[in-house]
Amino acid sequence: MTLLFFFFFFTITITTSAPPPPLHPPPPHPYGLSYHINSGTSANSTDSFNTTWLSDRFFSAGSSALVSHPLNFPLPSEKTLRFFPPSSYGKKNCYTFPSLPSSSRYLLRTFTVYDNYDAKSRPPSFDVALSSTVLFSWRSPWPESTASNGAYSDLFASLSNTSSSLDLCFYGFATDAPLISSIELIQVHPAAYDAPDNIILVNYGRISCGAPQHWGAAFSNDTDRFARSWQPDSAFRKIPQDSNDVRFLSTSNSISGVDEEPNYFPMKVYQSAVTTEGTLEYELEVDAKMDYTVWLHFAEIDSSVKKVGERVFDVFINGDNVTRVDIYKQVGGFSALTLNYTLKNLSSNAFSLKLVPVVGAPLISGVENYALVPIDPSTLPLQASAMKALKESLRIPDRMGWNGDPCAPTTWDAWEGVTCRMTTDKTALVISEIDLGTQGLKGYISDQISLLSNLVSLNLSSNSLAGEIPAGLGQKSLIQVDLSNNQLTGSIPAGLASSNLKLVLLNGNLLEGRVPEQLYSVGVHGGAIDLSGNKGLCGVPSLPSCPMFWEHGRLSKRALAAKRNRYQRQKSLMLLELESQHAKGLPSPFTPL
User: Fold this and answer.
1) pLDDT tens-digit readout, 284-323
2) I need a surface site. Which of 62, 370, 527, 564 has the fewest CB within 10 A?
3) Per the annotation, which location comes first and is thus the protein's main one (predicted)?
4) What is the rounded distance in angstroms from the CA atom of residue 268 to the CA atom of residue 220?
């Protein structure tokens, strides 16, 4: 699958005047759960829109910084940032949102700004991925307005029924340090926008026609239960180009059919509209060869339209006549009408929406356009869990960047020292090799390594690992094992004697006990095995013989039982001897003279 880079941002023009305080707190989101993370800060804060921003948390590593011109940014969530120097924290770093309800859906919004915080006058190049799928690609140089003022971006994504956490990961190129200013995760209705769970909806334009400025989350006190942000339409309106030929409508009247599940479209979208006497056309930038879902919003808010047939127009999308609209006929006056269309494999980098009059003038209130991005394969959940357990048990240092998915996205490097491959059905990734020799590791080998059922090669040599070799290490897939020059103790597990092993290096440890014969046969049948430097090993050529009944580095239960039996027999014989001596009148050794 060819990797697609795409991005759509709300680039904002910053003013030094703060927005007005909220008239009243916004209503709760329909499902309650929301996180507003202010990256780079150590304390909670509340902004002028009554949003509570949490101190920076859930990050894997990184450092905090302040933008160069903090007074230019009215919101506290826009003044600070977290950055991830790869030399200290590896190329891949993540925010991991824990303990989320499974089978749930979220809006994820980020704010990204450079503002020359590092005095280098060069914004970084990096990618941003949600779990296994790359979604945004930042490349230096950035547009000057974006670098200085920042940009918002957002998407809708679902959490599978097998996961309870969500990773937002950053991958730097060369020596560039990825950065992020704020992250918001807001639970929405699971059926929002009617997208399958294996599809991410990336915002390529959310337009409020007739609105004079941005509104919604981060821009105004206006309510949107999904915390969406809406842009004015002027930058996207192609025909008519002269605003004098455009009529802007607005109303304070209530609109019926709004703020309803599953999409909870806010009333404000339908309380403004654009109309013109001729054709009305909009054009949005998109990425070619992708699928999109388009949502069109209408409401007849012109009180002069009182009956069916007074306003009729055709809707053309990329030249195709997709429908004829008579708002009053379909829903009546002051009532919301929403239409949805899916565009397959667009051939150009532009999305065109044209409203052509049939009777009267066309009218529109809002447009939303989302790219339908398939979720890329990720590491099998059990194997991902095993690798995270190994990260903890081996005490992997931050510099190695063991964060997020071990293998995905596939366009990024896997975790340092890890090699992955795709399953034969192309639906998941598995771990095939681990090469962590001479990394200064001082932990132990987690038992969960047994879950890596596709592991072919394991090299943990020349570290300072202690503890025993896990009993589950010995997958049939395993061909090479190098655990040499550590401080491993205990016996060699019988399970390690895999028939497929070709190389076994266990030398230079503190192992003891009988060596499994099948394991030793690796060397006999053309492979290589080195057990030297383990004074306690026994039972195969070149090593001492094992004591009778020696198993697993100690006397077996049979040996212990035999030893007890010999003791009991010796004790019985001694008592018989004493009784015989007493019968013959000889003094007992237990009787004082």
Assistant:
1) 999 999 999 999 999 999 999 999 999 999 999 999 999 9
2) 564
3) membrane
4) 12
Task: Give CA separation, 176 vs 58, 91, 120, 313, 554, in Å.
Answer: 22, 9, 11, 51, 54
Contact 27, 51 (CB under 8 A): no
pTM across the whole model: 0.86
Q: How many CB atoms lie within 10 A of CB 573?
A: 10
Closest listed residue to residue 102, CA positions, set 159, 30, 187? 159
Strands 429-435 and 418-422 turn out to be antiparallel
| Residue at token pair 């920076």 | 56
**3-class secondary-structure state, position 571:** helix
Element (H, E) at 551: strand 550-551
Residues 327 and 306: beta-carbon distance below 8 Å: no
Dihedral angle of Cα 323, 329, 333, 337, to the nearest 10 degrees? -30
d(CA 312, CA 170): 48
Q: What is the DSSP string of 70-122?
A: GGG--SGGGTEEEE--HHHH-SEEEEEE-SPPTT-EEEEEEEE--TTTTSSS-
Instruction: Give how far Cα 66 sits from Cα of 39, 140, 262, Å.
Output: 10, 20, 39
Q: Tell me: cis bond preceding 374? Omega within 30 of 0 counts.
A: no
Give 7-44 pLDDT, tens digit per residue. Answer: 444 444 333 333 344 334 445 555 679 999 999 999 99
CA atoms of 428 and 432, how far apart (whole Å): 13
Q: Specify the length of the chain in residues.
A: 593
Give the span between the Cα atoms of 393 and 234, in whole angstroms.
56
Quote the DSSP letter at residue 60: S
CA 123 to chain centre: 24
SS3 content of the chain, % helix, strand, coil (to 5): 15, 35, 50
Span 142-184, pLDDT tens digits: 999 999 999 999 999 999 877 889 999 999 999 999 999 999 9
Strand, helix or coil for residue 380 = coil
- Residue partners of 340: CB distance under 8 A and separation at least 6: 194, 293, 294, 295, 296
Q: Does residue 76 have a cis bond before it (omega within 30 degrees)?
A: no
Single out the residue of 253, 255, 256, 234 nearest to residue 245, CA to CA: 234
Q: List all residues 6 or more positions away from 73 whose beta carbon is below 8 Å from its beta carbon.
A: 14, 67, 79, 113, 150
Three-state helix/strand/coil letters over 440-498 = CCCCECCHHHHHCCCCCEEECCCCCCECECCCCCCCCCCCEEECCCCCCEECCCHHHCC
Neighbour tally for 314: CB within 10 Å: 16
CB burial of 185-209 (b: ≥16 within 10 Å; e: otherwise) equals bbbbbbebbebeeebbbbbbbbbbb
């977290």: which residue's tokens? 82
Residue 288 has what DSSP assignment? S
